[in-house]
Amino acid sequence: MYESEQLLDLHQKVLELRRKQFQIHEQIYQAGTKIPIHFAFGHEAIAVAVASNLLNEDKLLLTHRNVHYHLALGATVENLLSEYQLRDSPISGRCLGSMNLDFPSKGVIYTSNILGNNLSIAAGIALGNKVKGLNSVTWCVTGDGAIEEGSFFESLLLSISRKLSLVFLVENNGWSLASEIADRRVEIDLNLLSQSLGIKYLRLMGNNVQDYYSQLSKIREIIQSKNQPFIVEVMLTTLGGYYVEENGMRRYVNYHSGRVRTDLVGESVIELDSRDPVYISERALESSDQSLEKK
Amino acid sequence: MIGDFSLSSYINMKLNSYLEDLDLGVFFGQNVISGSRISGLGLGVELQEKILSFNTPNLENSLFGLGFGLSIAGIPSVYLMKQHDFSLLAFDHLVNTKKLLQNHSNLAAFLVVMVVVDSGYEGPQSNLNNLDDLYSLSQADIWLLENKCAIDNAFTSDRKNFEIFAISQRNLKLPLISENPSITLGGFQVLENNITEDFKPVIVNCGLSTEAFSSCLSFLHDRKIDFHMARQFKMNLEENLLFIERLAARGRKFVIVDGSKSRNRISTHLAYALLNLGSEVLLLGRQDLDSWRRVSQDNLQIDMESVLDFLRKR
């Protein structure tokens, strides 16, 4: 576990991650290139918390929206821009582009842009590590859209049947492309689903990186001692949404990919409440400064 | 020795031997370490100490993903499945995951052994008895385990990170056939000698259409027509074309038998290549596409007189 100073450092990492995403955004769109990046403004806290929990033999599997994890794991803006333009870099160097980018030296060994594709791959990697006798954890990032795929249920069944040390990390932003959950399906209660299969479940919300880090550390201990999978559902907001006029009505559309429509959204990539991890981290750092001054 | 084996028992012996040579490995599938063990194909694997073997739930898509994940983790695995139709559920992995992993290094071998249910009477829904489409989309190396030679070739080849071994349901319990080819070049084996020294026609079997092929051979044999025969044992277009180029250099006539139900047949590519090289080709395949929709014996019917006419024509 981190000491108190290190925990504060996590908040700094959240701010840094936001700045770097902005830098990538500016450089790509100033250059006029058409690279299909799925920015993750608003996803910084969970990315920093996961990256800080990865140990040597752990593996992390990502989705098409992966920039936040790569930056949290130490990729530089220059490295990522190189990879996006299919040039060599110390990250992957395998011409995988923005949606399949991996980072093997940091444990990111598979990234899929196909919804739900990485779930069973993660089960295979977790099983492989178990066969090798490694006491590691495999972390598989997915989303509220991918849990609709049959492969999610299949992979849960497989991982609990084989007692795999595997975390299914569901980033739930409530949207799939431009449709809200309510526009496309009934609610899926992951807590109930996991109970029915005998899988542990935890919901994270509030975007406090320090809290997320601590909770994930505890989960890691449980997984390693009991050899079992875990579902972690993170409630978050993908910032950068905008409004469109449809049939005389003003409708909100969530940000999905590409350029943030700053002409339409103004400041909405920065929110002044718990939807924005940067807001939470800034408050945490401010209150820490104040308490130091008092001392 | 040959007489002691059926096709399935010989494959089982080879499979056990392959797994025994591994330092660590995983063997999985539905009903593979209990019950019928897929017509005996998985018999005895569970006794191997270095191999983790287990029965799985019915999750075909994820079982392909499991194998690819094991491959990334560096653990070789064998997924034994029946039946081939269920691979349709895993086309995402067969196409996209396979493509994504082509630049990965240090991948362990992931081998899928699948039974192609070509026995007929399966009903109109169970309609995927061909491997052409599977090969076309995945571009995986697919081996057809039809006789001892083909099985030996498949198991002794250097393992790639992903391969499929396909076995005909019709042939599983038949006695093992031993055929010693004079040439195993590319994806075909030629089963008689002197192929470069005369101009006899070549009767080629594509895919798993064994019954139609055999009846064609015996028909010609009864009429004392001298011919070479060749069986496809690997789905690989580049290797097949190389083989055909060598054969066609002698200007032979080719009769190609292809029982697949696909409209995208590898035999069409072979026939086209042969025609381009100046050969004469008779391609025998399914014409009555409506028969797909009926429950039937599912055999390819060949008009033997047309074969005779083709061979006699100067």
Give a written overview of the molecule.
- The complex is a heterodimer of chains A (295) and B (314).
- Chain A is an alpha/beta fold and 295 residues long.
- Chain A is built from eleven helices and ten strands.
- In chain A, the strands form three sheets. A six-stranded parallel sheet of chain A has the order 2-1-3-4-8-7, sandwiched between helices. In chain A, strands 5-6 form a two-stranded antiparallel sheet. In chain A, strands 9-10 form a two-stranded antiparallel ribbon.
- In chain A, helix 5 packs parallel to helix 6 (150-161).
- The longest helix of chain A is centred in the N-terminal third of the chain and has 28 residues, at 4-31.
- Chain A is globular and about 50 Å long.
- With 314 residues, chain B is an alpha/beta fold.
- In chain B, strand 9, helix 7 and strand 10 (228-232) form a beta-alpha-beta unit.
- In chain B, helix 8 runs parallel beside helix 9.
- Chain B is globular.
- The N and C termini of chain B lie far apart (44 Å).
- The mean pLDDT of chain B is 88.
- The A-B interface holds A 59, 94-96, 100, 109-110, 112, 114, 117, 119-129, 131-132, 150-151, 154-155, 157-158, 161-162 and B 24, 26, 52, 54, 56-57, 59, 61-75, 92-93, 96-97, 100, 103-104.
What is this structure's SSE topology?
The complex is a heterodimer of chains A (295) and B (314).
Chain A: H1 4-31, H2 44-53, E1 59-62, H3 67-72, H4 77-84, E2 108-111, H5 117-131, E3 138-143, H6 150-161, E4 166-172, E5 175-176, E6 179-180, H7 181-184, H8 190-197, E7 200-204, H9 209-226, E8 230-235, E9 242-246, E10 249-253, H10 262-265, H11 277-294
Parallel strand pairs in A: 1-2, 1-3, 3-4, 4-8, 7-8
Antiparallel strand pairs in A: 5-6, 9-10
Helix pairs in contact in A: 1-2, 1-4, 1-11, 2-9, 5-6
Chain B: H1 7-20, E1 25-29, H2 37-40, E2 51-55, H3 60-73, E3 77-82, H4 91-100, E4 110-116, H5 132-138, E5 141-144, H6 148-156, E6 162-168, E7 183-185, E8 188-190, E9 202-206, H7 210-222, E10 228-232, E11 234-235, H8 237-248, E12 253-258, H9 266-276, E13 280-284, H10 304-312
Parallel strand pairs in B: 1-2, 1-3, 3-4, 4-6, 5-6, 9-10, 9-12, 12-13
Antiparallel strand pairs in B: 5-11, 7-8, 8-10
Helix pairs in contact in B: 1-6, 3-4, 8-9
